[in-house]
Design goal:
Elements lengths: L1 H19 L6 H30 L5 E3 L5 E3 L79 E9 L5 H11 L4 E4 L1 H6 L1 H9 L3 E4 L12 H19 L5 E2 L8 H9 L3 E2 L14 H11 L5 E5 L3 H16 L3 E3 L1 H7 L4
Helix pairs in contact: 1-2, 3-9, 6-7, 8-9
Length: 340
């Protein structure tokens, strides 16, 4: 600051001399004063630049990007397109073990399912191999319910097998004299074949829920077929039976996925009653949501590894029977109905 004052005083003195004696300019002093004036302007610019941002932005203020990362100080709202955000994959989540946590919404479509990163200004990602794949031999619509099945309902469970949980579900089903269909994640089945065999021993049905519980709704037909085939191979190796039914993770579907299931002769089965038990609403809410929406030929979606579902299961079976429903597997429901 003392330098600034010094420059101002010297420039003022020089200006006064020029005004008093305009016909006798002191050229060396003039040049020196101009240099000092330029230095002064630069100093003022530096001060304003260094302090301006701190004046406009409170210290310590932060904002979050849509991916959840905290970034330091800015009072501006930054909007990042979801397609440009690549989620971080935990070290434990490898391709063969990419499954949702028991408390996560496993069969609800995610808000965004990025299919890889894309750099602005670069060439767009290549299209899928759908154009080069052969036409599917069959491309049926997913089965949500079965018409003409009479007063019958199929209860189904997703995301197993899960040690410490599958056994409990089986005990309830056995105690109630009920059969169900278990849509199993192939990688989990391969890791726990004894649980798959226990499901079959209780006269229940085993079906596929993909190999790694990934969103297959927008992948190529070849990629979907590889995933489904890997799951089918693992399940058939344990059960000794071919896989007849497939349920897409998150309910996410597309023409390539349906075609891939058709290539493997697997019928795509979804659901018509979803109590959203994955959100842990509590046993009373699960019971209320199922009973309010069930009807002849319904397929009820439930999940393993959720305490509320396990607690509600005995009462749910009893209430459905009190309403006259016969509880069957998906195969039995299709056999009783008019679905081709």
């Amino acid at each position: 600051m003392s330098q600034v004052v010094k420059y101002v005083v010297e420039c003022w003195a020089w200006g006064s001399r020029v005004i008093r004696h305009p016909w006798r300019p002191d050229w060396p002093a003039l040049i020196l004063s101009l240099e000092q004036l330029a230095a002064l302007a630069g100093l003022i610019a530096v001060v304003l630049t260094a302090g301006g941002d701190s004046l406009a932005r409170p210290a310590g203020n932060t904002y979050s990007t849509p991916s959840g990362h905290r970034l330091p100080g800015s009072y501006l709202t930054v909007s990042v397109p979801p397609a440009l955000i690549v989620p971080l994959t935990p070290a434990a989540s490898k391709p063969d073990t990419q499954t949702s946590s028991p408390a996560a919404p496993n069969d609800q479509p995610p808000a965004a399912a990025p299919q890889g990163s894309f750099t602005p200004g670069a060439a767009p990602p290549q299209q899928s191999q759908e154009a080069t794949d052969p036409q599917p031999q069959q491309n049926p619509q997913p089965l949500r319910q079965v018409a003409g099945a009479g007063h019958r309902v199929a209860i189904s469970f997703d995301d197993g097998p899960t040690p410490g949980w599958t056994e409990r579900y089986l005990k309830v089903l056995a105690a109630m004299g009920t059969r169900a269909t278990f849509f199993m994640v192939g990688s989990r089945a391969a890791a726990h074949p004894e649980l798959v065999q226990a499901v079959l021993a209780g006269n229940n049905e085993v079906a596929s829920h993909s190999w790694r519980h990934a969103n297959l709704g927008k992948v190529s037909r070849e990629a979907a077929r590889d995933d489904l085939n890997r799951a089918a191979t693992a399940l058939a190796g344990i059960t000794g039976q071919p896989v007849k039914y497939f349920r897409p993770p998150y309910g996410a579907m597309g023409p390539n996925l349906l075609a891939a299931a058709g290539d493997l002769h697997e019928r795509t089965v979804t659901w018509s009653v979803d109590p959203r038990d994955w959100s842990n609403p509590g046993p009373p809410a699960i019971l209320k949501r199922v009973l309010a929406n069930v009807h002849d030929g319904s397929i009820v979606l439930l999940h393993e590894a959720h305490p509320g579902t396990l607690v509600a299961l005995p009462e749910l079976i009893k209430d459905l029977r009190d309403q006259g429903y016969e509880l069957v597997t998906v195969s039995e429901l299709i056999a009783a109905g008019k679905t081709p």
